[in-house]
Write a structure and sequence with these properties.
With 191 residues, the protein is α/β, with parallel strands linked by helices. It has a single domain, classed as Rossmann fold. The model has no long low-confidence stretch (mean pLDDT 90). α4 runs parallel beside α6. The termini are far apart. It is an enzyme of class 2 (transferase). This is Probable nicotinate-nucleotide adenylyltransferase. It catalyses: nicotinate beta-D-ribonucleotide + ATP + H(+) = deamido-NAD(+) + diphosphate.
């Protein structure tokens, strides 16, 4: 039996905060792997600004050097909204001997009461919550918490900085920054 942490998100772009969360949860919970699952269309956000191909390429570059980090693009292959329930149902059907843990930030802990089919989802997985500045970890739902170093970082902040040609060194993996530059993503590198 393998124990797998799931880290979902738009990863637009994937940054060091994502990698920090994944590694800290993997170590604290002694998980075998962390699977990065980029969403197609998240139900709680507007569409992503970057294509699925670019996002998967950037994730792969970000996680390449870590043997316990894997990319799973199952949600990108699905049409429409990406609901966690559908993803976990598919994963448990495909990998019945695995135990799955779904990693969420404080922003999503607060949002749990509004999740699609939350009661059924709670029977299928264990949620692992990590702190995120500005959000509470208080919930009536069963969530295991992992204390991680917190940094005020989001993909939204990084996209804005890239568009404004502001300094982002040490916030993105170098390989992802090179990819952004080469493909002129987020307005970076355009005149």
């Amino acid at each position: 039996m393998r124990e797998i942490g799931i880290l979902g998100g738009t990863f637009d772009p994937p940054h060091l905060g994502h990698l920090l969360i994944a590694e800290e949860v993997r170590r604290a919970k002694e998980l075998d792997e962390i699977w990065f699952i980029p969403t197609n269309t998240p139900p709680h956000k507007e569409d992503t600004t970057t294509s699925a191909d670019h996002r998967t390429s950037m994730i792969q570059l970000a996680i390449d050097s870590h043997p316990s980090f894997k990319l799973n693009d199952m949600e990108l292959k699905r049409e429409g909204k990406s609901y966690t329930y559908d993803t976990i149902q598919e994963l448990t059907d495909l990998y019945p001997s695995h135990t799955f843990y779904f990693i969420i930030g404080g922003d999503m802990v607060e949002f749990l009461p509004k999740w699609h089919r939350i009661d059924e989802l709670l029977e299928m997985i264990t949620f692992i919550g990590v702190s995120r500045p500005g959000y509470s970890l208080q919930t009536s739902y069963p969530v295991d918490f992992v204390d991680i170093p917190t940094i005020q970082l989001s993909s939204t902040i990084l996209r804005e900085r890239l568009q404004n040609r502001e300094w982002i060194r040490y916030l993105l993996p170098d390989s992802v920054m090179q990819y952004v530059r080469e493909h002129q993503l987020y307005g970076f590198g355009r005149n």
